[in-house]
Design goal:
single chain; 620 residues; 4 domains; six-stranded mixed β-sheet; five-stranded antiparallel β-sheet; 23 helices
Length: 620
């Protein structure tokens, strides 16, 4: 259509409406109230314009306000030309509202990445075309095929009756598509989040109320376009959401990201499986525990990913921990149901309880062995009492009784100290001079057993990171080597050496003897292969393993050729920063002895059976 023709149409409409006659009515008042509320919402949003989606809601509110304003003027106009003018002007707001709502839904629900300048321009094209067609109605009939003023039931003023053209219905379909899609996106994103259900309800009311009014008008149910009235409801819903429920301050974008991030960072392993026992999702912790990846596990049967876990879950409730075959770590298993309208499944949570289970076993063993040792001590004391009754005043029996009572008292004190460490959430390690400690303890053993030869090969100092109880471990090893030796003159060699293994610094404590081999059951307890202690002879070797393990160290056993035993304890050495912080002199690199992995398997003892350190007894 020629531009001069369009200009003529606009000029005729403007001249016809130059002296319009207006009449106020209740419907006009409602429209103007919608204008006021829409402007108020826009102003309130401007103060929170940094919140997600606030800028698009400002555009939405102003578009609704313009729509309501021009529709109020349309209703109040008494001439056809004035009614047509304001009806066309109302499209300035009409074409803004649906795209603004759609963009708001995308931004508010975290889909802003879908928006680019190109897509925004595409969204605006139908709006611009529709607004342009609204001004060519007189010549094309694409928007309005025919129109006239007709009386309306219950109204004092006539209203514009329009027979709509094809372009109008295309616009209706487009606007409903945008509004409906935006609403669905919003509901899908936040309906599951309990925190946001009230906010979602406010938003849902805000968007559906205007379009319900519009649908009633388009379908011919209502004589007036009630869309602006719906915006009155929208303004109230949004206003309540802003002030009471922090509609824009707390939003599902942050909540959804936080929930996803929480699951991703959980130390507990989380695995989701469907009704057919197939893995549908798992978090990074589960990937580490099951030694798999999300891509590899998704869609695979749980039995293929973790056979022992699938077997454990085959019953109604897991009756034991899940123990990873490769690492031996224990995980407490919790199972909860996952139900939706279209599927069911289970959520499996694995919590690492390795340390807890180990401590539970340690406490159980400690109690059992303590009862065993105390029962033996009581029997010995009873025997001494019987002998003393038969031989009153016998100093040997009295000394034996006193010695056994002292051993019981020492045992009780040791157990009390162990319990204190077991009650702690994490082992408390200190930096100790192992060389000084060994020097003191071996001297005490030599004094108590003057017939024994206790040799030492110790550096001036050897600092280690260990529990304060490490002295008890040294006592048990050296005393066992002496007391369980069947020779009249037991021989024990105790050495401390600084070592480097795979670039890490350690301190090795080596206790060798020429006594009978340690029984297999006791050796299993000593190196931690069997914590049951069912066949072990007492608490001492179990204490050695427990103290060293909780100190972050290891215990090794090997036979001493041609006869005897060698027990090696390896403890971590402090780093250079500790020496600098404490002002200690430290040691040079020459004082550390490199050990390769291969050399670890070689016997550090003299296979000839001679005593490699000579006969330097610790003085009594």
């Amino acid at each position: 259509m020629p531009l001069d023709h369009v200009g003529g149409v606009l000029s005729r409409v403007a001249l016809s409406a130059s002296s319009p006659r207006f009449e106020w009515s209740l419907s006009v008042g409602l429209m103007l109230l919608a204008v006021v509320l829409a402007v108020g919402v826009a102003v309130a949003l401007w103060h929170r314009r940094d919140s997600p989606g606030s800028k698009t809601l400002i555009v939405l509110a102003l578009g609704a306000g313009l729509w309501s304003l021009f529709y109020a003027l349309e209703l109040s106009s008494q001439t056809l030309a004035g009614t047509l003018l304001f009806g066309r002007l109302s499209y300035v707001g009409i074409v803004v509202v649906p795209p603004a709502w759609f963009v708001f839904a995308l931004v508010y629900t975290g889909r802003k990445r879908w928006l680019g300048m190109g897509r925004l321009c595409l969204l605006a094209v139908p709006s611009l075309v529709t607004m342009g067609l609204a001004w060519t109605t007189l010549s094309t009939g694409l928007m309005w095929a025919s129109y006239e003023l007709v009386p309306a039931a219950g109204l004092s003023t006539p209203v514009l009756s329009v027979e709509y053209g094809p372009a109008f219905w295309l616009w209706v379909a487009y606007s409903y598509l945008l509004t409906g899609t935006g609403t669905v996106l919003l509901v899908l994103s936040v309906a599951a989040a309990r925190l946001f259900r009230v906010q979602t309800a406010a938003l849902f009311v805000a968007v559906t109320a205007p379009w319900l009014g519009n649908l009633a008008f388009v379908a011919g149910i209502a004589p007036l376009d009630l869309t602006p009235v719906g915006f009155v409801v929208s303004a109230l819903a949004l206003g309540g959401g802003f002030h009471r429920y922090s509609l824009l301050d707390i939003h599902p974008v942050t909540g959804g990201v936080a929930r996803a991030e929480l699951v991703e960072r959980l130390p507990d392993a989380v695995v989701a499986i469907d009704a057919r026992e197939r893995v549908v999702d798992l978090n990074p912790s589960a990937e580490a525990v099951l030694d798999t990846t999300l891509d590899e596990a998704t869609g695979a049967p749980l039995a293929a990913v973790a056979p022992s876990l699938a077997s454990l879950l085959s019953g109604e409730e897991p009756t034991s921990d899940y123990v990873v075959p490769e690492t031996g770590r224990s995980y407490e298993v919790r199972v909860s149901s996952l139900r939706t309208d279209w599927s069911t499944g289970r959520l499996v949570t694995l919590r690492d309880v390795t340390e807890r289970r180990r401590r539970e076993r340690e406490v159980a063993v400690l109690n059992r062995v303590l009862r065993h040792d105390l029962r033996n001590d009581v029997v010995v004391i009873e025997n001494y009492v019987t002998l003393i009754r038969r031989n009153p005043g016998d100093e040997e029996y009295l000394a034996g009784l006193a010695r056994r009572a002292a051993e019981m008292r020492e045992l009780v004190e040791t157990v009390r100290e162990v319990e204190r460490h077991l009650d702690a959430d994490e082992p408390t390690r200190s930096t100790l001079d192992l060389a000084r400690l060994v020097r003191e303890r071996t001297a005490a053993v030599a004094r108590e057993h003057p017939n024994a030869t206790v040799e030492t090969d110790l550096p001036a100092d050897a600092w280690v990171r260990a529990l304060d109880l490490i002295g008890s471990a040294v006592d048990n090893l050296v005393e066992n080597a002496v007391e369980h030796n069947d020779s009249d003159e037991p021989w024990v060699s105790v050495s401390v050496e600084r070592t480097v293994v795979d670039g890490e610094r350690y301190v090795d404590l080596r206790v060798a003897d020429d006594g009978p081999p340690i029984p297999e059951a006791d050796r299993a307890v000593l190196v931690g292969r069997d914590p049951s202690l069912d066949d072990a002879s007492g608490l001492g070797l179990w204490l050695v393993n427990w103290i060293v393990t909780d100190s972050g160290g290891t215990v090794e056993y090997e036979p001493n050729g041609p006869r005897g035993n060698v027990v090696t304890i390896r403890l971590e050495a402090p780093d250079d920063e500790w020496y600098e912080a404490t002002g200690s002199t430290g040691v040079s690199d020459a004082d550390w002895h490199e050990r390769s992995t291969e050399s670890e398997s070689e016997s550090p003892t003299d296979s000839s059976g001679s005593h490699p350190h000579g006969s330097l007894s610790v003085p009594s």
